[in-house]
């Protein structure tokens, strides 16, 4: 197998965090509707894929090995983001509250990233103290991420599916 650019699973997830933070900064500076739409769509895609690989692979690997309350909170935080992601993805820059939704999503993601990356007591710090093979987990995350990127390019991903929060029908 070729040398991986990421040392372990946590490095993959942190790289995703930096990429999305950069996209949010670009969105804030974007002037035209077309640029905002393109950036918002990229943010939504990146967050869909990131939450999927975390929920399908990363979080389950640590259930019972780190503070389960942290994992539960992460799932609920993801659900809040998914609601906004779906709404933004279905919208247009001229829609009411479009920019506000992107900005609130940015704030929610900043909070979530802080919870995961906090030194010593954050989720990632707790994960590093377990016996889980973070290199093997990296490979699984990258393989699934590639599958999802291919799916997004060829047919698109379905709307983000909340797992912990039940949405009431309108």
From TrEMBL:
Region forming the signal peptide: none
UniProt superkingdom: Bacteria
Domain Hemerythrin-like, first and last residues per copy: 9-117
InterPro entries with a match to the protein in the record: Hemerythrin-like (IPR012312)
Gene3D superfamilies, per database record: nmb1532 protein domain like
Protein name: Hemerythrin
Organism: Sphingomonas koreensis
Organism lineage string: Bacteria, Pseudomonadati, Pseudomonadota, Alphaproteobacteria, Sphingomonadales
